[in-house]
Structures are given as C-alpha cells and as structure tokens.
Batch of 3 targets.
Target 1
Amino acid sequence: MHNKVNKERRVIAGMFNNIASSYDFINHTLSFGIDKIWRYRLVKKIAINNPQKALDIACGTGDVSIALMKKGIDVTGLDIAQEMLEIAKRKTEKKYNKYLKKTSKGLKIEPTKYILASADSIPFPSNSFDLVTIGFGIRNFENREKALLEIRRVLKQKGELAILEFATPRNKVWKSLYNFYFLTILPFIGKVISKDKDAYNYLPTSVNTFPQYSEFKKELEKSGFSDVKFYSLTGGVAVLYIAKNSIKME
C-alpha cells in the first residue's frame, strides 16, 4: 500500500524553498551527473521540431529552461517556489552573458523569463506555446488532471509536451539495487546536506505513488493528448514522455 503524500501547493512550495540553495549540488551529486544526460535527451528529442516558444513548468533552478534557451528558443520558466526561481534567474544571467561573449555576429537568443505561478492556473492566453516541458515536477502537482488541461489550453495545435519523470526499474536485479539506494542512501545524504529531514524522504514516496510507463501514457491520452510515446532512461530510473496536442483548444 502506498503512503499518502501531501501535495498541497503551500507544502510543496515551502519544501522546495527550503532546499533551494543545495538543490543543484544534491541532484547532480546523488544522480552521479546522470540527470544532466536525461535533460540533454529531452532537449535533443524536441529540438528536431524547431519550436519557437516554450513554457518550462516546474522549472526549478532553470536547468531545462537554460538548455532550451541555448537552442535559440524563446522560453518562459514557471514554478511555485520563489527561492528556486531566484536561483534560476541568477544562473540564466550568468549563462546568457557567457553565451553573448561566445556568440557569432548576428546570432542572438532571448534570456529566459521566469514567473511565479502554478501549472493548474497558467497565466497565458490559449494557444501561446509550441512546446511545454516539465522536468521532474509533474509528480508534485496538486491537481494533475486540471494542470494537464491547462497545458493543452496554452499549447498550440500540434504543439508538443515533453515530460521527464522518475520511475522504478523493471529489471529485478536493477530494481533491488535502485530501491536500496533510492529508499535508504539517497534520503540520508539528502537530509545531511540540505538540513531538511522531509524533502528527500518525500522524493521516493512521491515517485512510488506516481503512475509510470504505460499507466501515465493512458493518463495523458485521457487528458486529450495524442501520439504519446515514452522512453526508458538508465534502465528505467527515469522516463521521457512525449505527447502532442492534436485538438485546438479555444
């Protein structure tokens, strides 16, 4: 039986505000840097369709937003945790200034914009974006059904949704090793570094209670998305879901 997870917006925002300063260091360390490869896979997969405008929901400290920005995409990052957004803004400014020094004449990109908002109430008109991305955030949504409808609303017809999320490996040996690390070692190290006793206990619980693989594919289809595909990453530790908004939302 799954443990209940409190996903009230104020609770989730408070938790991520508390760990914001150590978030990047812990993520990159505990994933052995593999999280960077997962984000690279996402950006590579969607870049072939040449999206012009993107909304990065649950953008956190801005890693996906910045990666999309580097591709010349006009990006808006959205999150409910103000402290995470402050770090994202600083990282973006640093990366953007570095880019400007290296860029060739005439080649320009716009710096990512960041807003404090929730996925179930997106402050943009319908049909605003070619692409919506969510990197390891959808399992934290307070109202996932409403959020998916909002995402479809702001996506243009034939616009794309790309979601990275954690999962549980299917291979029995890999699953047992993963569970030992994910349920025992990771929460302990995360707690020691972040000084937050709840955040890294919440992580494995939130993953275990989130629909995975074909189960989440069906949820996306039920919400009106089509051509839903998913790709297992690192033996199923993470999954990349890609879906299209086939019907124009008014």
Target 2
Amino acid sequence: MKAKLSPKPRKVAIFDIDGTIFRSSLLIEIVEVLIELKLFPATVRLQYEKEKINWLDRKDNYDAYIMAVVRVFVKNIIGVSAEDFERASKIVVERYRNRVYLFTKNLIRDLKKKNYFLLAISNSPKGVLDVFCNDFGFDKVYGRLYKVDSNNCFTGEIVDEFMIADKANLLRRAVEINNLTLDGSVGVGDTESDITFLKLVERPICFNPNMKLYKYAKRAGWEIEVERKDVIYKL
C-alpha cells in the first residue's frame, strides 16, 4: 500500500488591515458607532478630540491619536454586551465596506486566484475584524480579543495581549498549524510595528508607510507602494 502523501503547503499572504486595506481605523469607527448607539457616552469624544486635531493639524503623530481612542474603548467597553458589540460591528462594515484601497483590494483578488492562504493581523478588536475580513475571504484573522463575563458582557480585559503584540510569532504560528510555507510569501504593512512580519516574507510590501517604516524599507530595499487619490505608484 502506498503511503498517503501530505497535502502540499499553501503559500501565505499576511496583511495589516487599518490603513492598509481599510482607509481608516476599524477601532475608531466602532467607537463612533458605539457612541451613536448610546452604548458609549457622547462625552468620550472629548478624551481623544485633542489628539485627533493635533494629528490633523500635523502637530502630533497618529499614534497619539489612536492610543487615546484605545484608552476610551477599553474603559467604556466594560459592561457592553457581546450582542450589542456585534450589532455595532455589522453597522460599521455595512457603512464602510467599500472604503478600501484599490492596490490591496486588487492584490487580495490576485492572491486568492493563486490559492494563497490569506492571514489578517491587526490590533483592532477581533469581533469587528472578523466581520470586515469576511468580505475579502480571509482564511485566518488575528485581532485583539476582549474577555466577556458569565453574562456575555465585556470586562475590558484583553485576552493574551502579548500574543497579538508579536505579529511575527503569529505568522510563524499560522504557518505551523495550517500547513503553510513562507516560500513565495507576501506581506503588506504600513507602520514600523509591521516590520517583524515583513522581515519573514519573501515579498515585503510597505504600503502608504509612515516615516519609520519608510526609512527602514529604503535601507532594506523593500517594495514601497503609495496610493493617493486615484494614483498608485512606487517609491
């Protein structure tokens, strides 16, 4: 009897989501919808408004803004039911599902035709990530997973936060448990936090990179793609 052959490993493509596929932040949009649904008080906007204005006026960086939103989310998600969060997530995706970059949308389409395993890794809440990524046919989604209590309400605690912080380790884990290969692999990121996984793939793509990632990519000779209005070009 012939030995059963193991299935051939699939090539993997890993994507950051916010600012790379989605032309905004899923975290920011879910907070806005939670306010709209009166699940968060409207006054929480005051807790990140200054950082938002400073970023828009180029007086401070985007990280300060997004971290202020993270603090608001973690503090105010406590006591919100998982059902209400799912409802808010569906509203976000229904409202913004087409607000995506053409470069990454087309890249995903082409990679799917080639039977790539599509992996998403983001610091946005996993609940809204799952809904958003479903439209694109992602095979696996890693995001921030928030703990719920016995009443199915959020506690504000992040489950295994150290794991989502190490994107390279998550890529290695996905490769190991899903019979994947890094041969011919593709990675797309937009900030320096994506460098760890971009270093592992054969084709690292820095898409609309911030300055820290741009400088690193230039030194490393990585592909740099920019999409501005209706123009896509290489740097």
Target 3
Amino acid sequence: MIGAPLLYVCVRPQKGAAEAEYESFRTAMRLEPHQLASLDLVRETAPTDVADRYSGFVVGGSPFNVTDPESSKTDVQRRLEADLLGLAEAAAARRTAALFTCYGIGVVSRMLGGDVSRGHPEDTGPVTVHLTEDGRADPILGGLARSFTALTAHKEGSGAVPPGATLLATNDGCPVQAYRVGDRLYATQFHPEPTTRAFTERMAVYRDDGYFPASDFDAVAGRVLAASVTEPVRMLRAFAQAFGPG
C-alpha cells in the first residue's frame, strides 16, 4: 500500500529481546517509529487483511525452529507459523513485499517445497557471506560488497535453494544464505539488523539455549564485537527504500 508503514513481525517469546530487535530493524532501515509498525505474533494473531494494511514486512528471528517435531510445537508456534505462511504466500503472489530472516527463511523454504534440516547449522558469531551472480544483479543486495561479514546463530538451514527461488548469497557452512522469490519476497539465513553490540545483548538472553556453550560467552562475544558488519544493514536500507513508506 503506497504511503503505508512497513511492519516488523515479532516471533520471539522473549519480550525484551523482541523490543530490542524492533529497534535494531528500525535503526538499520533509518525509519521513524511511525514508519515501522509492530505486530507480535507470539501474543496476537495476524489480522486477516494484514497484507493489505502495510507497504511491506520484515520478519525477525526466533528460538523456534521449523524442524522442531510437530509433537513438541506449542499452539503458539503452530499458529504463528501459519500466520507467517500467509504473509509469505502474499509476498510470493506480489500482493505485498516481505523480508524473512533466520527462523523465517525455514517457513518460506518449506512453503516452496524446499528441504530444511539440522544438517546446516552455524555457530553464533560472524561468518563470511558471498553474493552469487544473481545476487550481484539483485536490486536489493546488488549494492553490497561481493563478500561480506554477517552475524548468524541457527540450528537449522538448507543445502539447496528451494524450487522457484533465486539464490542470492551463499557460504560453505550453510549454502543458502539469501534468496528471492519473484521480485517482492526475500529471505536471509543471517541476521541483517543488529549491530555487534546489540547481537551480544541478544546472546545474553539466549546463552542457555544451546546456540553456544554458556561458559564460552565472553569468547564468542569478543569475536562478535571485533567484527565489522556494515553490509547487511545496507541491504535493509535498500529494502526500506524499495518497499517502505517513502
């Protein structure tokens, strides 16, 4: 919708981490609070007309995994995954624009019939990501350096781009780092929004959730703080310029 704000979609149960993530997205995209609304899918259901209310969507990360056994998923997780699926379908149909990050890329990949498994995890911290030829020609990622540092922390991933998607970025540890579906649906495995300081603050929230040994916190945080993560936020700014309120 022309002139409407973008919407940050929260899928984190930890409210403090979610609020910080919203601020990271807003700051990275250089938006004012009225230009980036917020929807907390953990605590509320998406309105049926949500895809028509906003100019586009950015979906944050989560400790949930799409590969969690269905028997272990809570009603909240099942409901929010259904809501995310609806947003992904709307963006794939060009009814809106959306960027799904980390946990969200698994939702999109499964929608497309792709494989998501525990076979491509990445440790918490900085990794090197490489643009593909299609990535270098992409209107959102094409302005980035050909290789850049991004921050990751995930237990699942994909070894091959799902059907119907165009691979935009890759690396050896997790071959599917970013892709595009059509021209309005994007997904990244890495976290594009946090500064290194914000990422270490998020690490403190999840230090006992199995992403890294809790006793290694200081060493991991040190590697994060020493990293330079200039490029992922440039991607977010390009997304906001292309699909935001203007």
